[in-house]
Amino acid sequence: MSEHTITDEQYEQVQQQITMMASLMADMEADLAGFLNRISNSEAIVPILNPTLYMRGGKRLSAIKKLAAASLTYATACREFRDAFMEIVENESQIPEAVRKMMEA
Q1: Which DSSP string corresponds to 36-78?
Q2: End-to-end Cα distance, the chain
Q3: Residue 105: pLDDT band with limits 50, 70, 90
Q4: How far apart are CA 99 and CA 93, in angstroms?
């Protein structure tokens, strides 16, 4: 396993980027769960109703299902991060208002 090292500045930048991505994904859990449910329903009925369509779109459907499942796991982690962060923010008056607003968005 190779060891990757980054500077303090790079560390801060990566942390900010991860936090921004988390704020975007945190509220997508329900949407992603619904999306996956629709895919499951499609997988159950489309092969019967339109086997040709299913055969043509099966690979693409499988790929988006895999991505959506990974995104759901990520969205759950993002929501948990946001909830934990907001708990800390509510208890720490010295955290800047700008950070608080970003996490509430």
Answers
A1: HHHHHHHHHHHHHH-HHHHHHHHHHHHHHHHHHHHHHHHHHHH
A2: 38
A3: low
A4: 12
Question: 78 CB contacts (<8 Å, ≥6 apart)?
Answer: 21, 22, 23, 24, 25, 26
**pLDDT, tens digit, 9 for 90 and up, residues 14-49:** 989 998 898 889 899 999 999 999 999 999 999 999
Structure tokens given for 52: 């040709």
Q: Tokens 């995104």 identify what position?
A: 71
- 69 and 39 in contact (C-beta within 8 Å)? no
Name the region of 4 (left: φ>0; alpha: ψ -120 to 50; beta: rest).
beta
| Number of residues written out for the chain | 105
Mean pLDDT of the chain: 86
